[in-house]
Design brief:
The chain has 331 residues and is of the alpha/beta class. The strands form two sheets. An eight-stranded mixed β-sheet has the order 3-4-2-1-5-6-8-7, with helices on both faces. It contains twelve helices and 15 strands. α1 packs across α12, α7 runs parallel beside α12 and α8 runs parallel beside α10. The protein has two domains: 156 residues, NAD(P)-binding Rossmann-like Domain (Rossmann fold); 149 residues, Dihydrodipicolinate Reductase, domain 2 (2-Layer Sandwich), CATH 3.30.360.
């Protein structure tokens, strides 16, 4: 059993991590922390009352390094790199970071986020999409867990990269459940705003666009995210011109034939089919040389917590599906 800690236990992704880890066959939770500490887990998340309880500490890098073999950092950007800078001093500790701090090249990160205080470890981080960087993840000490929008988009695009017509614009219309915005209250995510409503935000200027561009090697990414009135789930619709006519279903089946967490659909996927799981469901259809791709994930799981645990499984050489939820929360 590997001893595991979670920093950022109070958020939605922190809760999802804990739910996976308390029944994981190879990981033992030994440390839970928030920025303040001083609570019990079942006070923090009342849904866990009479199920699982644990004291919540005030996050401390020295304690993490001494107690844990692995730590998940479910904290915002900028905060994460402050921890990683200290935690990488413990040579036997492995880290999975949920923030954007280690996902991008330095110049891209500083353009879209903030000044980076730990560029030396940025160069050591591996981007955590297993289908793309499985071999590198297996020997990594630091994994940058991807965002939900990039995960959904990149997995949809990957099988068709060599067929993308040179210079074609890549349009991504993505829709997310409200939980993707986290627990912090705002006018944008209030019930009155979200209920019976749908709207885009940061169209054509969202900072996940450069993440998609970097990892696919594609330019001309035009990304428009939307908020929809559901709790969890994400659906990305992707459109671009291809260089030749092809059979999308067969390409998808062949490309992902060995991937247990990618399912190829003959009809457009629904977010209810993936909610509560680590699956990515993908559909594609061609009209002449225009390709349409639809990719559905659970934004809190495949887009955050369960993908993080899959990455951790790979880092320690455990079966990828160990402890990972596969049964959707339908209806």
């Amino acid at each position: 059993m590997k001893k595991v800690g979670v920093v950022g236990a109070s958020g939605y992704t922190g809760l999802e991590l804990i739910k996976i880890l308390i029944s994981h066959p190879y990981f033992e939770l030994v440390y839970l922390a928030t920025s303040g500490g001083g609570e019990e887990l079942e006070e923090l998340h009342t849904s866990l009352q009479n199920i699982y309880n644990f004291p919540i500490s005030k996050a401390n890098s020295k304690e993490i390094g001494e107690k844990c073999d692995l730590v998940f950092l479910a904290v915002p950007h900028k905060t994460a790199m402050e921890y990683v800078k200290e935690l990488m001093e413990f040579p036997n500790l492995r880290i999975v970071d949920f923030s954007a701090d280690y996902r991008l090249k330095l110049e891209t990160y500083e353009k879209f986020y903030t000044k980076h205080i730990n560029p030396e470890n940025l160069e050591k981080a591996i981007y955590g999409i297993p289908e793309l960087f499985r071999k590198e993840i297996s020997s990594a000490r630091l994994v940058a867990n991807p965002g939900c929008y990039p995960t959904s988009s990149i997995l949809g695009i990957l099988p068709f990269l060599k067929y993308v017509k040179s210079g074609t614009p890549i349009f991504i219309d993505a829709k997310s459940g409200v939980s993707g915005a986290g627990k912090k209250l705002s006018d944008t995510t209030s019930f009155v705003t979200v209920n019976e409503n749908i709207f885009s935000y940061n169209p054509l200027s969202h900072r996940h666009a450069p993440e998609i561009s970097e990892k696919t090697g594609l330019e001309n990414i035009y990304f428009v995210p939307h908020l929809i009135p559901v709790t969890r789930g994400m659906l990305s619709s992707i459109y671009f011109e291809i260089s030749e006519e092809l059979e999308p279903f067969e390409i998808l089946k062949e490309f992902y034939k060995d991937e247990i967490f990618v399912r190829i659909r003959k009809n457009p996927p629904q977010i209810k089919d993936v909610a509560g799981t680590n699956f990515t469901d993908i559909f594609a259809k061609r009209d002449g040389k225009i390709l349409y791709i639809s990719s559905a994930i659970d934004n809190l799981l495949r887009g955050a917590s369960s993908q993080a645990v899959v990455n951790a499984n790979i880092m320690f050489g455990f079966p990828e599906e160990s402890g990972i939820p596969k049964i959707p929360t339908t209806p």
